[in-house]
Amino acid sequence: MSDREERRLIGSYRLIDWRDFADDGEVRQSLGADPVGFIVYTVERCMTALVMAADRANFAGDDIRAGTDVERVQAFATASAFAGRWRIEDDVVVHELEAATFPNWTGTVQRRPYRIDGKVLTLYPPRLLLDGKLRRSELTWRRLERDNW
Question: Cα separations (Å) of 69 from 35, 78, 79, 101?
């Protein structure tokens, strides 16, 4: 683990694109053409990520714990969040998740090969089962600075 490499990763990023590549050749933008998302890596080695589709439907009511079954299912299907500790091992950022909207990830270790090119961070999760197909993904993020929100 390199202190220099950790310093390069520390920061806040906005999601630019999330592409999935299925074994059968299908390529798609997992959350649509304009996904919304942020990932933050702190100097204290805490991290949090949130990704969602841009065009999510509002619930009919304002109770954040209510909603119809259809509304809740759609909300869950179009957003994901997780948080925990992070570290770098070789060319992999390791997320030790303490919380996740997908319950199966809580308490797990998620490894993401990554690349930093200037202000652009690309994460390469391992193949995941998404919508019934094994897919590999590329998530592209742009580092946030005071004037580039």
Answer: 24, 14, 16, 17
Q: What is the pTM of this model?
A: 0.91
Q: List the domains of the chain with CATH numbers.
A: 3-143 (2.40.128.280)
- The alpha carbon of residue 33 and the mean position of all alpha carbons in its chain are separated, in whole angstroms, by 15
53-85 pLDDT, tens digit each: 999 999 999 998 889 999 999 999 999 999 999
Distances (CA, A) of 63 to 36, 70, 76: 23, 15, 16
- Cα-Cα-Cα-Cα dihedral sign, residues 9, 11, 12, 14: negative
**Burial zone of 24 (CB within 10 Å; 0-12 exposed, 13-18 middle, 19+ buried):** exposed
